[in-house]
Amino acid sequence: VYEHESTEATYELIILPPWYRKWWAFILYLIFASGIVYAIVILYTRRLRHIIRIRTAQVVKQKEEIQIQKEEIEEKNNDILDSIKYAKKIQTALLPPEQDMERLNLDGFILYLPRDIVSGDFYWLGQKNGKTITVAADCTGHGVPGAFMSMLGIAFLNNIIREKEDFSADQILNDLREQVITALRQKGQLGEQKEGMDIAMHIIDWEKKKLEFAGAYNPLILIRNETVFTINADRMPIGISEMVNYPFKNNVLDIIKGDVLYTYSDGYQDQFGGPKNKKFMSKRLKDLFLQIAQKPMKEQKEILDNTLFDWIKTGSSNQIDDVIVIGVRI
Fold this sequence. Notes:
Blueprint: H1 23-94, H2 100-103, E1 107-113, E2 121-128, E3 131-139, H3 143-163, H4 169-183, E4 197-205, E5 210-216, E6 220-224, E7 227-231, E8 251-254, E9 260-264, E10 272-273, E11 278-279, H5 282-292, H6 297-314, E12 323-329
Helix pairs in contact: 1-3, 3-4
């Protein structure tokens, strides 16, 4: 206010950074952070190695246990397989050899193809009082359960035919059904297992030139003069069923020289295969019988065997059931 002005005074201030912001502090920070990261990595690696050691020990222990179990299972499987193979020997011994056809003066063949080692299908050949009896049967199931049933069937047929002097195809099946029901204690109760068998039986009376046929589901195919005749079976099994009180029908036919008879289980016609992986079907099987009927019986067997093999090979499945086909030429 008095117009007196002082001279200007100038001051310079330099503010130094604190120690924690100096360059060497940042180097310490970096070293410290690296140390922490390194420590974390080391600790985590040690933990992982410890876990890996534990898991490795567990895996090794499990492998040892699995190997022991595998060896035990293999040993049991080998024992079971040996038993089944021995059962096959017994079953084969019970089945009549195909050479019996010549002994019985039959011009024929037997195509017998079990799905497993032992079979639920069986056949029976015999002769009594000048009559020749031929049986093709398919038991419930296949493998071991079917084999048990087949051996029962063979034993029952032996007893029935040995004890009867006067017999017919229907009487034999009626008696066989009764014995199966009795042996398996079948009562027809709800939920009860209905083990049994399907069967085709024909009896040739050479003196009278007559043919008797009785069947449980499985038919008889007769080829005569290039014509196919189907003699249908009864729609009831050898075993318990709603039809247990109905007797089997005895079909009696005249036979002439050149007739060809075929009996079989459903294993052939039900086999999946071919380009479209479908069933072979009964019509195709009958057509095949008609095509080969005039050929020698040994050649017929080879054709049937090869045809089934090719049918399975061109499809996408394995053999699904036991197969039995019996052919006889009068």
